[in-house]
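Reader question, answered in our methods column.
A reader sent in the components of a multi-part assembly and asked whether the whole thing could be modeled at once rather than chain by chain. We filled in our standard form and ran it. Here is what they sent:
COMPLEX SIZE: two components
ENTRIES:
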Amino acid sequence: MRRGLLLLLLTNVLVSLAGAQSVTTKDNAVIETEKKEVLMVENEVNKALLAGDTNVLSRIYADDLSYTNQVGEILTKSQVLSGFKTGNIRLPTLGRRQIRLYAYENTVVLTGISTSTLRYKGVVTNRPRRFSNVYVRQNGQWKLVAHTVTEIAE
Amino acid sequence: MVMISIAYPISAAQVGGRGGDADSPASIKKEILRMEDTRDRALLRRDTATLDHLFADDMAWTSPNGEVLTKSQILSNLKTGKETFPSIVHNNVQLHIYQNTAVVFGITTSRVFYNGSFRNKPRRFTNVWVRRDGEWKLVDHQVTLIGH
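And here is the structure of the entire assembly that came back:
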């Protein structure tokens, strides 16, 4: 009787552990998938920035995007798109390094250093800048909801 | 002194989702503002126990000079006095809420002592909060000097 009870307890523990492991494995798989999806979207954004393709940017940028540029201005989605259309914003070259992704179920924060050449209102900069992009999945689509840039002090 | 002026353009469509009062736009907004206030007061008091609870373990904290600090570095700096916040003042604070994610941004003129010098020039800040297992955690903080 006692041996039977012990066996039952042991079985329950093993089943619980197996369940916990499968949940963890599933979570990790979801996280990795989200990171891959966001990297693909980020790649699309990068190509669109270089090409000044506002159709792609318009599709990926959330309507209420908050876009903080390197001089501390906060721009709306329409201001950013208008900047590309008028030529006030241009990225002749694109450089990214130290890319890191943090996934939190339907939200991914992507951080890194940009060394892109940026022309903004006639001023050209290619000083290294820290940036973070926050992507949120809305109706099955990853949308950029926040973009923040900070110049790295020399 | 903690001065916070707030404007929060939140629409029901942005919040969507799980239903129930706890997930209503007003409830989430209130909760996030409470978390921000708790964070600010903890920074003022160098209350690292509270900050330890609020900050996600993998939080990225980008200073206005572009330095990225980890959670443990921030907590250590506060403990040792390498970084202190003698006053916290935020203006034009706005919130965008996306179900389990909140983006808070605004202008700060807080007085900060860091690495031997003070700064209180106006800076843009962005805070990203994510709800995990029912708890809101700060996962990303970034500051940009205005007009630099």
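What stands out: The beta strands of chain B are 2-6, 55-62, 68-69, 83-98, 101-108, 111-114, 117-119, 123-132, 135-145. Chain B touches chain A at residues 9, 14, 58, 60, 62-68, 94, 96, 98-101, 103, 105, 122-124, 126, 128, 130, 132, 139-140, 142-148 (CB under 8 Å).
Send us your own complexes using the same form.
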